[in-house]
């Protein structure tokens, strides 16, 4: 393979990932959210939460952030299947979808992405555990924000997300989200005395 071919293969994946900027997180429609955040919006904040959780839990923040960025990239091909739909549909495993997505990428790129997705899916390393918590915590945080915006049918997302959390730090952050105000950051902190 030549360098131009490798670059073209990598760019195919990059263009495909751009679809996530336009693809909605469809489960929120059941709660009455007319214009939910995109999958890319979700993945971005999941990566930030993952970085924070990794620092709190002593995991590798860069690795966790990468796992978080990649955790839903398969949804360009299988879409965001709502939880209720999973009772009736069987999607290809994420690792299989990812392998297809990166097949034209340079081997080093394909190996990096395939390995990261396999790690996330296995959920066994400290980084994968933290990344999975970040995913659930982002859903909980989004539900809290929707609740503060007047969407009152989000408690099942809060409850299921919270029940799935594994790390102590994720539980502490969930408690802070549930007792906090999403726009509190707009108010300057009090000056030290």
Helices, strands, pairings?
Blueprint: H1 3-18, H2 39-57, H3 61-70, H4 75-78, H5 94-101, H6 107-122, H7 126-148, H8 155-164, H9 168-179
Helix pairs in contact: 2-3, 2-7, 3-6, 3-7, 5-6, 6-7, 7-8, 7-9
Could you explain the architecture of this structure?
It is built from nine helices and no strands. 61% of the residues lie in helices and 0% in strands. Helix 2 (39-57) crosses helix 7 and helix 6 (107-122) crosses helix 7. By secondary structure, it is mainly α. It has helices at 3-18, 39-57, 61-70, 75-78, 94-101, 107-122, 126-148, 155-164, 168-179.
Q: Which structural category fits the helices and strands?
A: mainly alpha
The total count of strands amounts to: 0
Shape: globular
Q: What is the helix content? A: 55-70%
Unreliable spans are none
Our measurement of the CA-to-CA distance between the termini, rounded to an integer number of angstroms, reads 65 Å
Query: What percentage of amino acids are in beta strands?
Result: under 5%
What's the pLDDT, averaged over the residues? Answer: 95
Query: How many H/I helices?
Result: 9
* Main sheet properties: none
Pattern of helices and strands:
HHHHHHHHH
Whole-angstrom Rg: 18 Å
Would you kindly provide a brief summary of this structure?
The chain is mainly α.
Keywords:
9 helices, 193 residues, 61% helix, globular, mainly alpha
């Amino acid at each position: 393979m030549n360098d131009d071919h490798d670059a073209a293969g990598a760019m195919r994946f990059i263009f495909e990932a751009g679809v996530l900027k336009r693809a909605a997180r469809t489960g929120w429609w059941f709660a009455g959210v007319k214009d939910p955040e995109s999958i890319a919006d979700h993945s971005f904040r999941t990566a930030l939460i993952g970085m924070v959780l990794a620092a709190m839990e002593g995991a590798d923040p860069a690795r966790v952030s990468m796992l978080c960025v990649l955790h839903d990239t398969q949804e360009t091909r299988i879409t965001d299947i709502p939880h209720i739909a999973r009772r009736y549909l069987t999607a290809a495993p994420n690792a299989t979808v990812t392998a297809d997505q990166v097949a034209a990428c340079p081997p080093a790129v394909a190996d990096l992405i395939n390995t990261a997705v396999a790690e996330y899916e296995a959920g066994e390393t400290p980084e994968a555990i933290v990344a999975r918590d970040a995913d659930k915590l982002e859903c909980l945080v989004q539900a809290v924000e929707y609740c503060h915006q007047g969407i009152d049918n989000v408690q099942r997302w809060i409850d299921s997300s919270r029940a799935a959390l594994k790390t102590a730090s994720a539980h502490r952050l969930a408690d802070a989200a549930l007792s906090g105000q999403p726009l509190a950051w707009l108010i300057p902190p009090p000056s030290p005395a």
